[in-house]
Design goal:
- The chain is α+β, with helices and mostly antiparallel strands.
- The chain folds into 3 domains: 14-71 and 86-111, no CATH class; 151-218, no CATH class; 225-475, Fido-like domain (Fic-like fold).
- Helix content is 51%, strand content 8%.
- The protein has 20 helices and 11 strands.
- The strands form 3 sheets. Strands 6-7-5-4-9-8 form a 6-stranded mixed beta sheet. A 3-stranded antiparallel beta sheet has the order 1-3-2.
- A hairpin with a 2-residue loop joins strand 10 (352-353) and strand 11 (356-357).
- Helix 9 runs parallel beside helix 15.
Length: 489
Amino acid sequence: MEPNTDISNLLPPLVFPGKSAKERKHIADLKEQGRIRSIGPKLYTSVPENMVEAVVRSSWTLIVSKLFPTALISHVTALTYLPTKNGEIFLTAATNRNLKLPGLTIRFMRGAAPVEGDVDFLGMKASSFERALLENLAAAKGTLKDRALSQEEIESRLEDILRQKGEEGLNSVRDKAKEISKWLDMEIEFKRLDRIIGALLGTKPRETLLSEKAIARSQGSPFDSKCFGRLEILFAHLRHLPLKEIKETNKSPSHFNNKAFFEAYFSNYIEGTIFEVKEAEQIVFDKKVSTSRPADAHDIVGTYKIVSDPNEMRRLPKSAQELEDIIKGRHKFLFEERPEIVPGEFKTANNQAGSTVFVHPEYVKGTLQKGFDLYQSLPAGLARAIYIQFLISDIHPFNDGNGRISRIMMNAELYSQGLSTIIIPNVYRTDYLSNLKALSRRSDPENYVRMLSIAHEFSALDFSDYPVVKSLIESKNWFRESDDARLIR
């Protein structure tokens, strides 16, 4: 027997009173049949009891637009357009009352009707950004703070405007708020806003500011709070995590130089600088530069020269300024044949990989500084190596070459502590990149740390006899692509 596909009897999750006599009769019939039930004034539902709260909360805009179309969406709701964590939304109207529904409380405040600049939203009106700032600053005091963003959150939003639109954009916000404050008798709130904006612009005392992000901006070293949040998560994971560290027992020059070659070869391969290994051998060892791809050849040679220099690989940053100097110097040396990426200079425009947008150029120095503060508090060795690789990768301070620089910094940490360095072979590329993304996009440090810890173990081979180790890593699928082979450990 065919299943019943008639959808004519299906009801929406929420049902509102009918306007005509016929519609009202239909609602009454549905109630009598038990197909809908009342959950609040002029509001019915057709869903099971265990689904009601979620449906009501996710449908708050529909409920307000149907039941209170003349109210103004205001206060914190006009900035987030979401219920608070307690399930509250805030409206300004000619009344003071609360309406409790399953999963949602609609809170009304008596206040002024919409004014010039307030925005249209689904047939309703919502406070303009400038009006909402004033409302939040008014409500942030005393017993009204539950209907407001904190001053720290407001400062963060203003700092974002300053970054995206510059002083002109932030001054425009201030000018509009000043006019609105006169219409709504909110001059006291405007003075608070003016002090915050002035502190961000450096024209008023920074003691006004509360958020770390805004204070850093006022001091001329703004940082990316989202990136720093990920760095804090990784730091917390690494701080007391017992990591298995593999000592480098082979001290022979041939081992060091051969491993440096494979490190340079695979590190460039990850980034798309692809040569057959025999051609790379001729470029590095025989100094036979490819005439068709001289810049690519220099990338491999430059990487090799850095990672095969024991003095360079012992050089670690002792301050944030030294960190900047080291990565800029290595970048300049590595990419001197690529003037288009401006070797040795931080980026001046946003860069991204797929949907991942990296730290804004204006935030690079400040985020490096904040990140270095955490780096210093980690134990030397594998923990710092794992951390600094992600620090450089997630900030992406240069136009190009960030991956290679991040892995050089990682291995300098290991080499300087007498530990085996890490190589990411072709077959492990997907594991490496997917776990980097998991930390960048989902703040998941566990798999990223495990991935590099595994690489630390399988990279601890004897590289002193070149033909032997080349044959060995071939047998372990190092040269194979990750989509058609698996790593043999």
